[in-house]
Write a structure and sequence with these properties.
The structure is a homodimer of 471-residue chains. By secondary structure, chain A is α/β, with parallel strands linked by helices. Chain A folds into three domains: 138 residues, NAD(P)-binding Rossmann-like Domain (Rossmann fold), CATH 3.40.50.720; 142 residues, Rossmann fold; 167 residues, Succinyl-CoA synthetase domains (Rossmann fold), CATH 3.40.50.261. Helix content of chain A is 42%, strand content 17%. Chain A contains 16 helices and 20 strands. In chain A, the strands form four sheets. A seven-stranded mixed sheet of chain A has the order 9-8-11-10-12-13-14, with helices on both faces. In chain A, helix 3 packs parallel to helix 4. At the A-B interface, helix 2, helix 5, helix 8, helix 11 and helix 15 of A face helix 2, helix 5, helix 8, helix 11 and helix 15 of B.
């Protein structure tokens, strides 16, 4: 069942908290109680900040309060950096004081056996009694870049926003996604470390992000849950509005031997899981890096109208590599129309170039004008719904960036770029391409991950539409 | 049949050419004849440089010669930036003048049909008549970082060397490998764009690099060849001395439809190809990025003595992701000995940490001292042959870099690091770890690619040894 509107609103208020208290704030820069405070400051949070500690007076230039009760207003969010037992008491106090939400960072709950399980039940009971939004326990926290609210213990300048929001069962994997997104020139809108999910399940966060106007792509990392069906159903609802990606680990014997202690169970067989994803319109990916590249393409480019791909390059090999990766994607290599072939023949008169798709323009493609002209002919082709433009960074040749932006606009068909270079090198053209809606990847494999996800989501939306027509 | 010692020496003289002429040198910075000259200068070549052009007098501050014959010495290497017909004449002239080797950049040969095929036969006949080393045609060229000889038309400062040498059928994929290696903090020793392989086959270059003392890892990118058996046999010979990696594209229907025009044929079925790789001791990889990460780990770290893996982390999720990827690799997750368990119990007294492998030290691992201590206990375990150390970049926590270097030295067992961060962030620790023989990757998937290759090569060498014992 979908999360109620009341519950969604409550969650939204926590994601946009106007005041935050930190229980267990302290003065050791390597400890969580310090880092939570530093995160708020470093992230540029503009709401009220209330560090709480019985003895400290000042921390990082903030006035410290000796207790929650001493704070002169009802705070929206309390971050709790206390041990597992004290956290339970603190949640009760938060509930009594009318706090809206809490983040419980401590571990030592159900992942640690019977005693931990009892503690977690107490935690969850306290939250439910007071309708408190509880994130965790055993979590890094969450952030909302729009509100400049970094409620994790990873202090940082939040990267410039994007429509991508991340739900992660692992702090480490969630951080990895963030870092990789940064390498791809993108930030994250909302980032949620679900932790042990004492009260809020994957499905609840999916419901929330599906409704969230600032989120255009939902990326989920999961190890396991005993609420798999709820997740699948929430995903199907979400996928009608926006793409939802999922990466699941823990399938292998090696991992299952190791992971059993800290997550719930889920469908064990990778094949059954993949089938379920397909049935519920989740786009399944196979690595954290693929999750990021898929999210990037989906966040940046519009969906193509059809499945015909045109490719232009000045070096053939990478286009062959890309075709191999696309084998399983719902697309076809467009056959150029006779008109396109005639125009290409004129363009390449006397130059030894093979006129086919992918089109390797060789030296003709070294200049932005030549490359742009060939790309225009290809994108104009009525069989081509999407252009992939491949270029290898070279000291004296420029990529046809402005030409690609112009033809995308002219034909209203999406373009995806692969600029073979280092991550730093890709930035040279990315800052022009990406704001114009052309995702730019530095390697072929990553471009294929992005492109594959866009094509898969197109198929999902098309099938949905066909189903509607049949009703 | 292996390349003769005479032929190997000739090839080596070309890779260490003491003088280079450029036929078709010109003054347009976007054209190949200019770029070849710029590459020599930019790469820091210290031998003699002779640009050749009938009218120019000076190019990039070099004296221009009006013809090859006018050059006052026998040059070792001639780079030919002329069209496909003129290139044939030039090769004949080079042969007559006693040149040792030529690079033929032009396309328009066998990849363009019957007329091109005849031209290529003439090219090859001219080279053979004079025992001339001919690289190409239809190639970017080659470089040798040791000799600071960049004989490609991609001018650049050659990145600092490594033991990795690359043989690529595609300039673009070969460039992609170079760029990715740069992101991984490594350079390339020798880089060879084989082009159409008019006279020199993959197997010849493999034989050469197998003997080359500066090459410790051979990375091959291939689309197709009709000399597949020769390649496989050369690979088997090479693998007795050093790891040889192969990435093959063009398996998919999409790619075969497209690629057929510009490469020879090879085993079509991916399964048969994989079986052949296994049989001939080639390590097969599935992407350019995997090729790079595998080469990196093999180039930097020693082989472990056994297959027992120990893992340490401060965040569990990434270690689970890694275990999934390692499922197919020849390794096992080590069971800690009772002694290790006892030491860990003492170390984590009163801290909620689950004592198992992978070991998630949580907050205890936030400090380099804590992380280093745990790592030492794990690496000391007699069941552990190799340590994987995972850390997520954090503003206030430092990675246990010096500790890892010290324990690797102390126990003489290899360590591989995954420092979850951006590519730029990884540099923070990589520059300390990698020179000490600890490869450091910025993502789990890449770490798994590296680790998997090392484990596979260990198995290859162990099997070889076992076979020897049985003889």
């Amino acid at each position: 069942m979908s999360l109620s509107q009341v519950a969604l609103n409550r969650l939204d208020q926590v994601f946009h908290a106007r005041s935050v208290a930190i229980l267990g704030a302290n003065d050791s820069p390597e400890r969580v109680g310090y880092l939570l405070l530093e995160s708020l400051l470093e992230g540029g949070y503009t709401g009220k900040i209330y560090p709480v500690h019985p003895r400290h007076k000042q921390l990082l230039n903030c006035t410290v309060y000796s207790s929650l009760a001493e704070i002169p207003e009802k705070v929206d969010l309390v971050m709790i950096a206390l041990n597992q037992e004290k956290t339970v008491e603190a949640v009760k106090e938060c509930g009594a004081l009318g706090v809206k939400g809490v983040v419980c960072v401590a571990g030592g709950y159900k992942e640690m056996g019977e005693e931990g399980r009892r503690l977690e039940e107490a935690l969850s009971a306290a939250a439910k009694e007071h309708d408190l939004v509880l994130i965790g326990p055993n979590t890094l926290g969450f952030f909302n870049a729009d509100a400049r609210l970094n409620a994790t213990f990873y202090p940082e300048t939040l990267p410039p926003g994007s429509g991508i929001s991340v739900i992660s069962q692992s702090g480490g994997v969630g951080r990895a996604a963030l870092e990789k997104l940064r390498d791809e020139g993108l930030g994250v809108n909302k980032w949620i470390g679900v932790g042990n999910r004492a009260t809020l399940e994957f499905s609840d966060f999916v419901d929330y992000l599906a409704e969230d106007p600032a989120t255009s792509v939902i990326a989920v990392f999961i190890e396991g849950t005993d609420k798999g069906r709820e997740l699948m159903e929430a995903a199907r609802r979400a996928a009608q509005k926006k793409p939802i990606l999922i990466f699941r680990t823990g399938n292998s014997d090696l991992a299952q031997k190791s992971a059993v202690t800290h997550t719930g169970s889920m469908i064990k067989s990778p094949k059954l899981f993949s089938d379920a994803c397909a049935q519920y319109n989740l786009i399944e990916v196979k690595s954290t890096n693929e999750l990021v590249c898929a999210a990037k393409a989906l966040a940046l480019m519009p969906l193509p109208k059809g499945e015909g791909i045109g490719m232009v390059t000045h070096t053939a090999g990478p286009s062959i590599e890309l075709l191999d990766y696309l084998e399983a994607a719902p697309c076809r290599l467009a056959d150029f129309t006779p008109q396109t072939m005639a125009e290409l023949k004129t363009l390449f008169k006397g130059i030894p170039v093979i006129l086919k798709n992918p089109l390797d323009a060789a030296a003709f493609g070294y200049s932005p004008e030549g490359y742009g002209r060939v790309s225009e002919v290809v994108l104009a082709d009525s069989h081509v719904d999407l252009l992939v433009a491949i270029h290898a960074l070279h000291k004296n040749w420029k990529f046809a960036t402005s030409q690609l932006v112009a033809i995308q606009e002219k034909f209203q068909k999406p373009v995806l770029a692969c600029y073979i270079s280092t991550v730093a090198g890709a930035k040279l053209v990315r800052d022009e391409l990406q704001p114009a809606g052309i995702p730019c990847f530095a390697s072929i494999q990553e471009a294929a991950w992005g492109l594959g996800a866009v094509l898969r989501y197109r198929r999902i939306r098309t099938n949905d539409f066909n189903e509607l027509l049949q009703d």
